[in-house]
């Protein structure tokens, strides 16, 4: 499989007088179709790493390639377009807009994406909500949806522009056990059935069972980078 994302000697330091070395120097590659899990304790640098990969922040030094593109070459406007059309995100907070219904939330990113083809927006959004098993909740507002349902709306929205990579930062941190399982199995199915590349951050070692590439961070450094081969970590 081809490399879809390459992180090369990336460092991220915060602050001016007192420096926090959130990422010390990390390098690794992700191939198309992988389900990558980034593990580590709170404060180990997981979100910082995800933000660098997802073009939500800029490294202090080092390079990031998405496909063949060194993202440092993109200006702010190009970065915004890249994020919108090529990347998808889900976060711990579902970040769906309370003023909009489920279906309106899902087709929102399509309204700014001129590349999304001719499929009528509502129809495509409906298909995405059906895919996350919310075909019966199209016109509900967020206060009429459970946490798990809201996160599934966020997943449908993240996928509507067919992103090359879906980034998820602790997507189940606010969910109960049952909704967590539903959301993680949904992500796993997306990965297996449509080959969606997923990069997920979690502090829960149980989530390893869903991933096939597991990167562990400790104090801003990668302490292990392993692939699962026939269920065993190598
Ligand atoms: N914007 C920021 N400004 C200053 N320090 C930050 C910032 N973001 C993260 N940090 C620090 O960097 C370290 C790693 O944070 P983070 O990547 O959020 O960890 P994790 O997601 O693994 O819990 C922590 O010490 C955190 O306080
Ligand atoms: Mg975090």
From TrEMBL:
Pfam families named among the record's database cross-references: ABC_tran
For this protein, the record's InterPro entries field holds: AAA+_ATPase (IPR003593), ABC_transporter-like_ATP-bd (IPR003439), ABC_transporter-like_CS (IPR017871), MacB-like_ATP-bd (IPR017911), P-loop_NTPase (IPR027417)
Q: Enumerate the spans annotated as ABC transporter domain.
A: 5-233
Which key words are in the record? ATP-binding, Nucleotide-binding, Transport
Q: Which domain of life is it from?
A: Bacteria
Q: Which GO terms describe its molecular function?
A: ATP binding; ATP hydrolysis activity; transmembrane transporter activity
SMART domains the record matches: AAA
Reply yes or no: does the keyword ATP-binding apply: yes
Has UniProt tagged this entry with the keyword Aminoacyl-tRNA synthetase?
A: no
Question: What GO cellular component is one of the record's annotations?
Answer: membrane protein complex
Of which family is this protein a member?
Belongs to the ABC transporter superfamily.
Give the protein name, as stated in the record. ABC transporter, ATPase subunit
Organism whose genome encodes this protein: candidate division WWE3 bacterium GW2011_GWF1_42_14
High-level lineage: Bacteria, Katanobacteria
């Amino acid at each position: 499989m081809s490399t879809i994302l390459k992180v090369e000697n990336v460092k991220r330091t915060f602050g001016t007088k007192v420096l926090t070395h959130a990422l010390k120097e990390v390098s690794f590659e992700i191939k198309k179709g992988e389900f990558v899990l980034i593990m580590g304790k709170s404060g180990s640098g997981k979100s910082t790493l995800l933000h660098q990969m997802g073009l939500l922040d800029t490294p202090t030094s080092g390079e990031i390639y998405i496909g063949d593109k060194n993202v440092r070459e993109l200006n702010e406007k190009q970065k915004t377009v890249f994020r919108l059309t090529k990347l998808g995100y889900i976060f711990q907070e579902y970040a769906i807009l309370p003023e909009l219904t489920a279906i309106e939330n899902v087709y929102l990113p399509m309204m700014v994406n001129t590349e999304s083809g001719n499929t009528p927006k509502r129809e495509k959004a409906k298909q995405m909500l059906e895919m996350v098993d919310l075909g019966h909740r199209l016109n509900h507002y967020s206060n009429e949806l459970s946490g798990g349902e809201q996160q599934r709306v966020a997943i449908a929205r993240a996928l509507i522009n067919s992103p090359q990579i879906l980034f998820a930062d602790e997507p189940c941190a606010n969910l109960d056990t049952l909704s967590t399982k539903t959301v993680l199995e949904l992500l796993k199915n997306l990965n297996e059935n449509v080959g969606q590349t997923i990069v997920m951050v979690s502090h829960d070692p149980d989530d390893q069972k869903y991933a096939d590439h597991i990167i562990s961070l400790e104090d801003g450094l990668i302490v292990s980078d392993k692939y699962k081969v026939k269920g065993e970590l190598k």
